[in-house]
């Protein structure tokens, strides 16, 4: 059609003709400016409509050619792993939406593949040992091996972000030395319940996580 697109012609025309003429003739040009403004709106609407149609068509073609796949090319991570939100809802079935969102934000800040330890408190243990003692043990998980009042739990006392698995299990062993009665000991008399259930979660994608309960975490 031409070397310039309609929009470019229109912009050029605005600066070269419309604006100078407007300045010269002032309010006499008002009707013309009005028409120009409507024309500009029509141009932009047509363009947006066309782009939107292309987007929908691409999406449909991609859906037809790869049934079950979405548009994101993330090597199927979304299908192999649960979303972090689903993982948290599974781990904390009783938590409020607000708490889940808070934990999710905390985990989303971690780097991919960083291990996250999640401890769900055991109410029987808390009843026997007081909530203050429970908090002391969780604070130990949050601060052990860190310097200068740093914490790995952002104050959550339940979601602990580690650099790697070695660090995670080193801290667990340290806490076992400091608070042995937080752990379940088969041979102890009387029997002592574990302080909670430990889950290990690894962030594998933007919002995806691999996770599992570690049933021997709190066993001596
Ligand atoms: C294509 O699939 C995605 C997710 O599978 C869906 O969100 C989207 O609406 C689908 N698009 C069309 C045009 O069917
Ligand atoms: C794990 O992280 C700690 C602390 O950042 C670091 O000192 C250690 O070398 C790391 N170990 C491995 C196996 O990456």
Automatic annotation (TrEMBL):
Keywords: Membrane, Transmembrane, Transmembrane helix
Entry's transmembrane regions: 12-40
Protein name as it appears in the record: 7628_t:CDS:1
Organism: Funneliformis geosporum
């Amino acid at each position: 059609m031409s070397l310039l697109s309609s929009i470019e012609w229109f912009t050029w025309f605005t600066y070269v003709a419309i604006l100078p003429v407007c300045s010269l003739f002032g309010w006499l040009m008002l009707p013309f400016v009005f028409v120009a403004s409507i024309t500009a709106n029509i141009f932009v609407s047509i363009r947006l409509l066309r782009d939107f149609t292309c987007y929908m068509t691409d999406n449909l073609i991609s859906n037809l050619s790869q049934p079950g796949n979405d548009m994101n090319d993330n090597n199927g991570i979304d299908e192999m792993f649960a979303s972090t939100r689903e993982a948290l809802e599974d781990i904390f079935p009783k938590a409020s939406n607000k708490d889940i969102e808070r934990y999710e934000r905390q985990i989303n800040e971690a780097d991919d593949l960083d291990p996250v330890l999640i401890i769900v408190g055991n109410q029987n243990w808390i009843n026997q040992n007081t909530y203050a003692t429970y908090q002391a043990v969780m604070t130990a998980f949050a601060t052990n091996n860190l310097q200068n009042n740093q914490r790995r739990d952002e104050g959550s006392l339940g979601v602990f972000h580690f650099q790697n698995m070695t660090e995670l299990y080193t801290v667990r062993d340290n806490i076992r030395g400091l608070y042995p009665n937080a752990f379940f000991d088969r041979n102890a008399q009387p029997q002592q319940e574990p302080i909670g259930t430990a889950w290990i979660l690894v962030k594998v994608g933007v919002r995806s996580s691999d996770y599992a309960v570690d049933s021997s975490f709190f066993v001596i």
